[in-house]
Amino acid sequence: MPPPSLELETALEIIAPDKSRQHVGVTRSPFYIGRGGEGDNHLQLADGRISRKCAALIAEAGGYRLEDRGNRYGVFVNGTKIERQALRDGDVITFGVDGCYEIVFHLESTQSQPSTSDVEDILKRLDSLPDFSGAKSGGLSRLNLLLEATSLLHSQLPLDSVIGTMLDHAIMVTHADRGLLIESDATGALRVQLARGNNGEHLAPESLNPSQTAVNRAIRSQSSVITEDLNLAGLDLKGAESVVIQGLRAVVAIPLYSSSRATSENGDPHKRGELLGVIYLDSTRIAAFTALDRQILDALAMEAASILDNARLVERERERQRLEQELSTARTIQQALLPRGLNDFPHLALSGVHYPCHEVGGDYFDVFPVTEDRTVFLIADVCGKGIGAAMLTTMLQGTLSGMTVGADPVKVFNHINRFLCRHAEVGRFITIFIGFLDSDGKLEYIKAGHPSPLLLRRGRVSELYTEGSLPLGLTDTEEYTSAWLQLEPDDTLVLFSDGVTEAQDPDRGLFEVAGLSQALSGQDGAPVEAVQQAILDAVEKFTRGEPQSDDLTLLVVRYRAPR
Prior knowledge:
Distance between the termini: 106 Å
Largest sheet: 6 strands, antiparallel
CATH topology of the largest domain: Phosphatase 2c, domain 1
CATH architecture of the largest domain: 4-Layer Sandwich
Shape: elongated
Mean pLDDT: 80
Low-confidence stretches: 1-8, 109-137, 261-269
Structural class: alpha+beta
CATH superfamily of the largest domain: PPM-type phosphatase domain
Number of strands: 26
CATH class of the largest domain: Alpha Beta
């Protein structure tokens, strides 16, 4: 029995390990798939893990079946290993190893839209037309436009130039008066981005008024709207205001979609990708499009969609790289501003650490001398994350450094608060604890909404204060004051951000102050570095690898009596 004739358009979408894609037409049966060019393989896959004799597509009544020819790791359809399997449109073929080729099977009727990789198929269809020289030469001329447009994908021309040429080709195929590329702006509204006349001239986009009815119908139906004579169209299109005012007789609107193959909730593998825009053409004359004209129009639109999609991907990648560079720079600056030489204070032993949960964070700690006998230490937390929070911590550090020239700490605090309140559009507030420790152990401190440090004294752990306070930047009527405490030799203060006490385990339980107090148990007299490490180990054990959503900052301060 002879094999069934190949009356259906069948193509394989080849997804390489690097995620590049190409389409290959299935033009014979059996159609062999395997590694390398040895033997009779029609589709050759360059992967050493695929067998030379891998699989075969065999035409049968109503479609194709896939057979495993002995691939080393098996042949799979939609994740299920098969020996032979009838294929449906959209089935995904894989070869049993990760990071290998994937093949998407496309089985379409002859009424479906061709991809631009099916140029050979279009040539065959052209050769089958009746031998009228005018039809053939016209068809070949139009096909040449398609081939020229395809070559633009590999050019280095600017995007506007490429799309402009694509529009010129579409105008020549349709004999339209003008061609437009319509894209959505930042708000999602459709705008004319590029426009050409039938002589290749640029048209001012703001002066054009395409038929919104045709454009919206194409988007709503997710298919081309090609109307050769608007007098014969539906009332909604024929009576559209822009059509009537401009005297339009023919309109073409082709929606452009990205090449991503999203899957809908019900498993439909043909759900459209992102809407990129619309190719729009119109004319004041009645048009007449052959079947080949329509195919070429669709192919041109697919090329335009591919160009736009690639351009957007490139732009997104450039934006991602730019943002990564900015974040890396911000992180470098932020890390450089953290204090160095924490052991260089004669009456203090210090250890501090800062772990941002993102590239840059809003936590900040610092230690610096005010006079020979007085040292400032502080911890702060700017609400929010990212570059905005990092910028505000840098501003805060610069402002607080003014205390080294003798500025009154309380006045500095109230000035920062009023400044932030005056610039409320910044939308951020700051919690902070700052202490001024004299060589004789006298501690003056100011609090602004920050959790109380824990005091470790002779084996007992207590909070420095229990009453609350408001962060900086919430209200300009708040007046901050200082408080005093006399430290004893070997007293240890543990300053922390809420990333410590609000660390979460996999069950969303919190570490809390109780967990921190427990971590300090038995640490009396241990070096400050050991105290810090005990806290970090306790947090890590508690969270059990659960990703955290807040920065973690610690500063351990021990008072040493002067010698």
